[in-house]
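hi!! sorry for the late reply, been swamped w classes. u asked for the two structures so here they r. pasted raw, havent cleaned anything up. first the sequence of the first protein and right below it the tokens
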Amino acid sequence: MAPPFSSLVFTVHRREPELVAPAKPTPREYKLLSDIDDHDGVRCQIPNIQFYRHDPSMQGKDPARVIREALARTLVFYYPLAGRIREGPNRKLMVDCTGEGVLFIEADADVTLDQFGDPLQPPFPCWKELLYDVPGSSGVLNRPLLHVQVTRLRCGGFIFAFRFNHTMCDAAGQSQFMSTVGEMARGRLAPSIPPVWERHLLAARDPPRVTCKHPAYDNAYDEIGETTVPYDDLRSFFFGHAQVSALRKLVPQHLRNSSTFELLTACFWRCRTIALQVNPDVEVRMVCTVNSRSKFNPPLPLGYYGNMFAHSAAVTQARKLCENPLGYANAIQLVKQAKADITEEYMKSLADFMVIKGRPHYSMVRAFLVSDVTRSGYRDANYGWGKAVYDGPTRVHVVSFHIPFKNKEGEDGTLITLALPAQAIEIFVKELDGMLKGSKPNDENGSKSVLSSP
């Protein structure tokens, strides 16, 4: 059995960072981002990590070389990603298509894939060595828009870690790009889905007019002292069929057809608020990302890889959320409504809101932040070595991610990451286990507890 990841120590030998430019000349021009792309909530870099097993059919192939060459060919089609972000008047962001390229690091580690544990799940040991932060590469402006590190493992497998500038694309856009890299690595000459820029489709109207409420941005700059929680303990929780079914039995009949995301998000929101021992008289919020791709009529062009999600919020009093059972508290209904609020008009109103309000950050005041990447498609990226064994966050501090996952028994389900102070995480686990085990009052054993990995 592999040692616990907390005790796993290994050495990574990195080559000097290099810039990978497009394999052919590309247009030199400026391209405006949309008004959904450039608000403060996405002015950041998002890390991700993929683990791949050794494949005997790829014997003699170097994953670092294969991926480097595939990146160069992909950037011919996605040439804005080889440029740099500039900021213009009124904080408007644009891409300077310089063709400089993306940051690439080739590395080797004296560790095998199995030593990371079974199943693979975050947080991962020495993850900063697996995605080295090159001095001067962080930030949004005037920096490479993609940072990649390919680390070969002693067993013949490899780790592909990357960091995207979030202003350029959301999870679906990143997945589209990575799928194209996989296609190029496997010999295609052009993407099966050609990339589409067309960021003007999500630009503010002239004149801008806010027609919807945007509660995710309420009090964004108020009560700053309540926005920061010391997240010093990260856990991962697996929910398979048994755990999800157990939670469904706790909610009223009319809510039992709720999606898995709605059910689990409501459950975690409630347990997290209890664990943090929030003042029962204050308002708490759940802020989730909602993909708007299906909301447009006519739909945006296939291949559009810009940000198309919105931060939507559910707000309630802490007392109502914590002191009532999961179903009675209507936490699920609040989550459902937050998702339903996102429409085509909402997205147009949001673009207008950003221009009028100066592109603010969403509120983090007493907020539970959630992102569902179960349908992002990252895991399907195939560079010649098959699908990733794990694909998702490296280590999460603020956002709780829903990740598609297969446990060691081979059961498909959802892995949820959660970071809290050490004392609070123990309260959270106790509360969650109590809900699961209490879901069958007549069953002494109750539901099997979820997998919790420190």
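now the second protein. again sequence first, tokens right under
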Amino acid sequence: MLMWSEPFLMSLSNGEEIAVFLMDTQGTFDSNSTVFENAFIFALTLLVSSVTVYNIMHNLQEDNLQHLSFFAEYGVLALDAYHTSPFQQLTFLVRDWQFEYETSYGFEGGETILTDRLQIRPNQHRDLELVRSRLRQCFRKVNCFLMPHPGLKVTNRREFDGRLEDIEKDFKKQLQAFVPELFRSDSVNFMKEINGEFVTSTQLFEYFRSYCTVFASGELPSPKAMLEATSEANNLAAKAISKEFYIRAMEQHCGGDRPYIHPNQLDVLHQEVRRQSIDKFRCARKMGGEQMSQNYQQDLDNEITELYVNFKKHNDSKNVFAFSRTPTTFISSMILCYLIAGILDIIWLGAINFIFMFAFWVCFVLLCLWLYTKYSGEYSEIGEYIDYFADVLWNNGFQPVYSHCLRSAMRSVIGNTKIE
């Protein structure tokens, strides 16, 4: 399977921009490929495409319809479970049509052939009836286009290099009729939908991954397994969109170029964005039932929690005081111990003075060790232990005193304001 390396960007009539991906596959149902390879290519093509062009040589035969029986069964399961057609548009492109004298080229002649081939006749075998009835049910639109032969210069000459003058006029005329109709942006089947929801490029990746996982065993999966894979991919896609919403919203407030936010304010922001993200996941149309949805919602909540931890660490790294807390704590402790030791020395309490001078030198050594670990990058674990010790010292010693002084100052200011 080959996909064009870049999407084609198009603008709809309402101004919305969409991406169009072109995908081509190798020939299927030939002597060089296995049944599994054929089914895998055909399945992946139908499941991820909004419009599938099924190339057929010369005529629309019964075996071409039988190749769709596996997917028709999958389509019926999806139709019964979710009451919507799982596939959008299937176009049979009959190449080298030889009977133009009986049936004209183009969509008009193709519709005549398709109607005849899909007609259910009396005494027809049950399997043939099922394929015909299910085909119209599983696809929103099934049509057929009869394409003339491009000319002997194209097929019989090795030196053909794509020059338009070597291609028959009828072929070029019908090509100009076929391609614009295929890429009509106002067509209801132009944009890819699954379960009634338009699919984004992020979601498309999830569908690819889930379908490839189902086929990874090397055995042809059952239609039920394909339906479960679609349900799983549908929930994964909804989760990816909700997760992306959370990331974008948080980066707007505390991203790399945003200033430091107080931890309490950041937590409130996280709770609100998390709620919106979960609501976005719940509101998305999903397949697989409530239990599957709950499991993926729990996964989303866990991933959001992990993201919040990273956002919190990133926000803390912007806090200048948080980085300087360790040296500030030790320097403040040294000053305090030195002042107390000096006062005790004046009042002849030398024995107690020794304790505070010992604490002074302990803080000095720890500060020097901390500076060395940060400057050299060595012994980072020792630096973490020193940071932890400084945090304990700050939270249990300086922080309560600082908070008490701040509250006292605020009460004094409020009291003076009332008196005035």
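hope this helps!! also noticed smth abt the second:
The mean pLDDT is 81.
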